[in-house]
Amino acid sequence: INKDIPGPAGYYYKGLWSSLSGSTVKQFNSASAISQCLKDKVVHMYGDSTVRQWIEFLSSKLSGNFPERNGHIFNLIVNHTFFLLFTELHYVANELDGVTGGKTTVVVIGVWAHFTTFPIKYYIRRIMSIRKAVVQLLARAPDTRVIIRTANLKQSPTPYSILFSDWPSLQRDKILRTMFQGMNVYFVDAWEMTVAHYLKHDIHPPRPIIKNMIDVVLSYICPSK
After folding, report:
1. Segment holding 78, helix H or strand E
2. Around 58, how many Cα atoms within 13 Å sit in the side-chain half-sphere?
3. What is the second-level CATH architecture of the domain 32-221?
4. What is the pLDDT of residue 29?
5. Rounded CA gap, 212 and 198, in Å?
6. Which end of the chain is more exposed for a tag (fewer CB within 10 A), N or C?
7. What confidence score (pLDDT) does residue 179 get?
8. Domain map of the chain by residue range?
């Protein structure tokens, strides 16, 4: 759960991510394992293209195809046992107000990449509105599982580009963590998971890192008993 760790959030061993936050990261290597975890669940994913990577990964693992797209909304239904919904470029707070919530509901939020080139005050306002909506969601449905994706390192186009460097991303990452501090939410520490990996930094992390991120997400949804 949301904890301030005075050091690394985890480490890789033989390509697999292990968390130092006290939670066990399980491996979901097959479509059947993923489907079993998501059975009877409704998963709402909100955010930018770094979150879209997750639903595209899940779709390719579960059906071998990319999800059906309707504008900036993706819908993926597998075997009619669970629903994966992804919404991009909508106001996340407004979308959350329409989520009933409950123990079968999972909400995934990842908002940062589109805000790195704008004044930071706009990001603060956006995250404040999302935080308020999450507080209201957890108040009406405390069993809802809320998962926050942090920012990650990216490859700068030039060695002297401050605007597109990791510095603006780091600022927004710290704001995101601070805003949700003390709340009953779960973090996928994308920053640590990219800085600790040997592959090149990219705003859209390569598939081996995405696979580990998905394992963290599914471990939050289906923790070890």
Report:
1. strand 73-78
2. 29
3. 3-Layer(aba) Sandwich (3.40)
4. 95
5. 14
6. C
7. 94
8. 32-221
- What is the number of H-type helices and E-type strands within the chain? 7, 9
| Distance between CA atoms of residues 138 and 203, nearest Å | 30
pLDDT recorded at residue 217? 96
pLDDT in tens, 84-104: 666 655 689 999 999 999 999
Note the pLDDT of residue 59: 84
Residue 205 is classified by DSSP as: -
pLDDT under 70: residue ranges of the chain: 1-7, 64-90, 156-164
Residue found by looking up tokens 């490859």 in the block: 155
Burial class (CB in 10 A: 0-12, 13-18, 19+), 29: exposed
Predicted local distance difference test score (pLDDT) of residue 222: 94
Structure confidence at residue 104 (pLDDT): 93
Three-state DSSP class for 49?
helix
- Coil, strand or helix at 5: coil
Contact, 31 vs 22, CB < 8 A?
no
CA angle 47, 148, 96 (to 5 degrees): 60
| Tokens read off for 58 | 């899940």
CB burial class (10 A; 0-12, 13-18, 19+) of residue 144?
buried
Compute the distance between CA of residue 95 and CA of residue 182 in angstroms, rounded to an integer.
23
Per-residue pLDDT, 74: 53
Which uninterrupted H or E stretch holds 196? Answer: none
Beta partners for 165? Answer: none
